[in-house]
Structures are given as structure tokens and as C-alpha cells.
Amino acid sequence: MPEPLLMRYMQPLLAGRRAECFELVDQAIGHGQPAADLICSVVWPAMAQVERLYKDDRINTAVEHMACRINRTVADQLQAHLPKSERKNKRVLVECAVDQQEELGAQMVADLLQADGWDVFLMGGGVPDDEVLATVGELRPQVLLIFGTLPTSVSQTRKQIELIREVGACPTMNIVVSGGIFNRADGLWEEVGADVFAPSAREVVQIVNELQPRTPQPPRLGIVKKRRRRRRVAV
Predict the structure, then answer these.
(1) Do 98 and 148 form a contact (C-beta atoms < 8 A)?
(2) What is the pTM of this model?
(3) Which residue segment(s) compose the domain that 185 sits in?
(4) Are 57 and 93 a contacting pair, CB within 8 Å?
(5) For residue 188, which of 11, 60, 77, 181 sits 20 to 30 Å off, Cα-Cα?
């Protein structure tokens, strides 16, 4: 029985052997394996394994950087082989953490959604909250996808979502989170105020296509406390 493609891919990937990785993927495409399947079943789990090995100190920074760049090149090559679906006239805005692995994950999700007929706007990472808010107001997307939040950025993600909701720039927009700390901490997506969580690229595509426009929530009114009058004391 032939060794699974992911295992055959991981060996040269961790050794930094670019040409061997590219050849394996080219052969798979030549044998008729769909590009979307290769993204979801090879490049995506390879990315996750590299990230896990790096966090566990089982590979060093040099190996992690080489693997990430190989994966990104492969993802770029596969994007050209993705079939194009009819446009859905729906927009998705994609942002992510400032990290190579998170940028790669966001790119692959963006590629799959674009092939599925979505109009995709990929911001990447490092965009200030006020500019994200302005972009949401300008594009009015059906979905804001936040991919790969880092543990140190959870509070910032929560503040960003709160700002978007308080301002109400696009109240029917769903906020979807995926990857990063959200894949490791159960229920965190609810704590930061997101509408939906999707753990993988394939599930992101499935979930956003099933979403209905978000029902805007009424603003929370602050409780106004009456000032107590001081009673005059007779002297």
C-alpha cells in the first residue's frame, strides 16, 4: 500500500527540499487529484504539523521558516488549479495574526472561498482596528473572517469585535473565527463575541455558505442610577 501523500510530503518539507515537495504536488495534480483536496488534505495539515512541532521545540526557527515558505509556494501553485464557481455576489473580508503560519492559513481559506464564488478581500495581519472598521463600513461584507489569533492577541480581538458591534457599521455581517488559539481553546470564540467558529479550511467554506444574515442585537442601555438627595438634618 502506497504511503499517504501527506507523509511523503512532510519528509522533504521538514528537510527544506523545495524541488521534491513541488514535484510531489505536481504529480498529484497530474494524476487528477483536485487542487482543493490537496490544499485541505496536504498543505493545511502540513502547516498545522509544522506549527505544532515548532511550538513543542521539536524543530528550530530555520526549519519552520523554510517549511512555511515551501507551503506558501505550493499553495500559490495550487490556487491556479482551483476550479472557478459562479459568483455568489457575496463578500468576505479576511484578516489574520501577524505571523507566517497564520498568513498562510488565511491565504488558503481566501483562495478556497474565491474559487467557491465569493468576492474575497484579504487584508492579512497588522491592520489597525480603526482601519478594519472603516473597511467593514466601506465593503459591507456578509462575513468578516478572523483567522489565527495568537494567545497574546485574544483581548485585542475581543475589543475589535466589540468596536465593530458598537459602531454598527455592518450589523448583519457575521464574524467567523478559525485557526490559532481558537482551535485549541474550547469556547473561546464565544467569549470574544464571534458568531461562528470553524476549525478547518473546508469547514470555513461550508459554514459561511450556510450562514444567514446576522440579526442585529439591540444596543445595551446603561443603567441610570438616580442620585439620592441628601436629607437635611435639623440642628
Answers:
(1) no
(2) 0.88
(3) 91-210
(4) no
(5) 60
